[in-house]
Design a protein that fits this description.
This protein is an alpha/beta fold. It has 2 domains: about 5-130 and about 205-220, Rossmann fold, CATH 3.40.50; about 140-200, Arc Repressor Mutant, subunit A. Helix content is about 40%, strand content about 20%. The protein has 8 helices and 7 strands. The chain has helices at about 15-25, 60-70, 85-90, 105-115, 145-155, 160-165, 170-185, 190-200; strands at about 5-10, 30-35, 45-50, 70-80, 95-100, 120-125, 205-210. The chain has a 7-stranded mixed beta sheet, with helices on both faces. α1 links the parallel β1 (about 5-10) and β2. The protein is globular and about 50 Å long.
Length: about 220
C-alpha cells in the first residue's frame, strides 16, 4: 500500500502536534500533510483524523463538514467513546472509521491503513487500556487527558450538562474529573478553574501547520 496522506484535526495545536509526533516514526506508511487547529483542511488528504479532545464527539457539524470537504478522502474519529450509539452516529454522519485513543502508535497506524483499505471500520482498545501517547494542555501540570478535556470545556464556558453532551461522558464521571482536576491545579471553584485555564492555554487555537513544523522546536 502506498503512503497514506493524513490531515490531523482538533481545536488545540498542542493536541495535533502531539499526535503528529506520535506518528513520526511511521513516515514510510503515514504522511502527515497538515495539522489543523480549528481550521479547515486545505490540502489533499486520504484521511482526516478527527481528534475528539474537547470537541463534539460523533454526532456533530464538524464531522459532516469534514466529510463534505472534497479534499478529504475519508474521515476517521479518534476517540475513547465507543458507546454503541456514538459509533453508529459517527458512521451515519459519514465517518469511515472510529479508532481508539488508547492504541499504541503502531496499532494506530495499522488501524488507519485498515480503514483506508476498507477492511475494518471500528478499532477499539482492550478493556482497561489507557492513553499512552499524544499530548494535551496541562499534561505538564499532571492532568490526565480526560481531566484536561473537562477543564478545556469548563474554560470555554460549558455547563456540566453541556460537557456531557460534548464529551460523551456521564455527569457523575464529569464531577469526578472536575474534583480531581481542581486538586491537581490547586483551585476550589469553577471561576478559579476558568481563570487558570485562560492562563494555561485551555482556549482553542486557530492555526494550520505543515508537517515540517512538527520537528521545529520553535512551534512547541
Amino acid at each position: 500500500m502506498k503512503t497514506i496522506r493524513v490531515a490531523l484535526v482538533d481545536d488545540y495545536e498542542v493536541v495535533v502536534q502531539g499526535l503528529a509526533s506520535m506518528l513520526r516514526n511511521y513516515r514510510d506508511r503515514v504522511e502527515v500533510v497538515e495539522l489543523n487547529a480549528n481550521t479547515d483542511v486545505c490540502d489533499v488528504a486520504d484521511i482526516a483524523l478527527y481528534d475528539s479532545f474537547a470537541n463534539p464527539q460523533t454526532d456533530s457539524t464538524q464531522i459532516r463538514d469534514l466529510v463534505a470537504n472534497p479534499l478529504v478522502g475519508k474521515v476517521v474519529i479518534y476517540t475513547w467513546n465507543f458507546a454503541k450509539r456514538s459509533v453508529s452516529d459517527a458512521l451515519a454522519n459519514g465517518a469511515s472509521g472510529v479508532v481508539s485513543k488508547s492504541l499504541p502508535a503502531a496499532q494506530l497506524v495499522e488501524a488507519l491503513e485498515s480503514v483506508h483499505r476498507g477492511d475494518q471500520q471500528i478499532h477499539p482498545s482492550h478493556e482497561g487500556a489507557k492513553i499512552v501517547a499524544g499530548d494535551w494542555p496541562g499534561r505538564e501540570e499532571g492532568l490526565t487527558q480526560r481531566e484536561a478535556e473537562v477543564l478545556a470545556l469548563i474554560t470555554q464556558g460549558l455547563s456540566n450538562v453541556e460537557i456531557a453532551e460534548t464529551s460523551g461522558l456521564a455527569l457523575n464521571s464529569i464531577k469526578t474529573y472536575i474534583r480531581s482536576c481542581y486538586r491537581r491545579i490547586g483551585v476550589s471553584s469553577r471561576t478559579q478553574a476558568v481563570l487558570w485555564g485562560f492562563e494555561h492555554g485551555f482556549l482553542p487555537d486557530r492555526s494550520r501547520a505543515r508537517p515540517s513544523d512538527v520537528d521545529d522546536p520553535r512551534v512547541r
